[in-house]
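SEQUENCE-TO-STRUCTURE ENTRY
===========================

Backbone structure tokens: a row of integers, each naming the local backbone shape at its residue.

Task: work out the structure tokens from the sequence, keeping to the layout shown below.
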Amino acid sequence: MNWDDLRVFLAIARDGSLSAAARHLKVSQPTVGRRLAALEDSLSARLFDRQPDGFVLTAAGSELLPMAEAMEQAADAVDRKQAGFADHLRGTVRLSIYEIMAQFLTAHMWALRERLPDIEVELSVAHIGANLSKREADLLIRECLPESPGLIARKLGRFAYAVYGANDLVGRQPMAHGDGRYQACPWVGFDEDHTYFAGAKWLLERRQGRPTEIRVNNGMVLHDLVRKGAGLGILPCFAGDADRALVRLTPPLADVQSSHHLIVHRDLRRVPAVRAVMDAVTGLFEDQAAALAGRSERAAAVGK
């Protein structure tokens, strides 16, 4: 029996159609159909009833499903473990991160490369974290701690945030102070679907529920709009303080910060290349602790 045929069977059972399974597996729909036919021929059983609204498991398919899932889990475990058999410090390590973390890591990628000369690093940027159990990534950096018992988290540190504005905007437009600033000045912020991002709810409260004049779903786009003078915005201090086009208008906001954790599957934590990247990222956070906390040399505050 071909394991690829069972993978196709699982995809159809989960997605309900040949076309959806093909997209999930990144193969053509005819390939999915041929694989399913081959599996049904090898078992001498029909696994799905073809109905107008999709594929539904037959009795034989329902009996096969838990066994195929167990094989999938075993295959995933082998995939995770195989990297640990190597005793050399080489290979590719993939990190799943969101855009603010990407902004931080890319700014210091030269330092990481110096520590990891023989390791290739891939950055996968998305709001939704990768599934480490299925090896969609080797490492995950997120604010929330993992719920799966197979994952292990290492605390990295916190990002401090402050209010920033473009030099040109601050220079040509009088900036109100105190709570008046939040009503009188134009702002760039996150949309309703991303109010969980750092500073979004805090700013909405100070604007008394009034939404920002410009709303985005991406932190790096928000930074770019602020630096272009579209409005004031709340940015991580490591990024705002390093941007010469911006001026910081507040000290680090006491109620706005984000804690980050480096997450790894327990089967991968001793893989030499993965371990080296974990140590390098942890060391980077330690080296940049002052900038992350908003204590860089350029971080002169002008009051709340």
User: Anything to note?
Assistant: Confidence is low (pLDDT under 50) at residues 300-304. The chain is about 40% helix and 20% strand. The chain has two domains: 3-79, 86-304.
